[in-house]
């Protein structure tokens, strides 16, 4: 073990000497490794950051939640589009029937939304808000957090009271620091009282944030617009109980929906049951392709760099042939010479890999602090970069090291 550590130390010293004595030659050879590792890790870092941001948005939908909708989130290639067009929208009748029949559901809610609405409070207004209307069980099917105020009471939902809950950005834009709860705002020509403010969530990759949303009771929305109309994207949201698998909840929901819609055995479903795993699987496929593309592009650069490292090692063997002869004449074994040059090649590749990782780290700082886009260099990508460096070092250094270990000591000393 002590000998191995000594070998590693000497190898790094030889590598550093090679870098110091032949700066341009070594730098040009390391450039391929540096660029290759930079491309591989930069792509992996970007993909992982994007995937985690989108996945966190998807997770807001709930891992145990199903959405009864007209259109599926993912289209299969063989299904004719006109069959989707002819499907009925999820209706209030569907929701009421499911609410009574579902045994495995923690909550069942009916939701509609009207996008790009203008809200007013005195002389202030906010444009582009999303107006959502939902039944009382909305707080059972979604995870709601409040920074001020409360959720609707059961009486407010039943009677369709003119109340609302606003997002944090809406509150900031309308009230400019004033206390929002208790204030009256104008929504689609109706005056409603703010009873709560959603907790600020920040920007979201998939637009799932509540920051620019306004929520009103479903019975209030009935008097403002047609809640069964397709233009308001009606859906029934079903969240399963915590101790029940999503597959079981889905099977019960599918059976109940077919019963409610009076579909005969063998007849195709006229509704879609959407869930987060559908999006997650598509994300994995998409980002997997990007990852492989980055790996191939970076791999070619690393391969070129590997040839450069192998060239340096052959030159290094040639320059130190007499030293090798002396070492062997003093009793150095073949594996000692082999490991010495292999470790030197690994050391050189690690230098190139560390430079590549350093460039990626600088890039993450640039995006985070200059462009205000948070990019994270994950530990697994650092390990991946170092792993690639070690692997290329072992491959590129083996043959020069093997040729050095097979030298005849007498001929080597005389060279």
TrEMBL record:
Record-annotated ABC3 transporter permease C-terminal domain positions: 296-409
GO cellular component terms, semicolon-separated: plasma membrane
Molecular function in Gene Ontology: transmembrane transporter activity
Keyword field contains Cell membrane: yes
Primary localization class, coarse: membrane
Keyword Transcription regulation: no
Subcellular location: Cell membrane
Domain MacB-like periplasmic core: 26-254
PANTHER family with a match to the protein in the record: ABC TRANSPORTER PERMEASE (PTHR30572:SF15), MEMBRANE COMPONENT OF TRANSPORTER-RELATED (PTHR30572)
Name of this protein: FtsX-like permease family protein
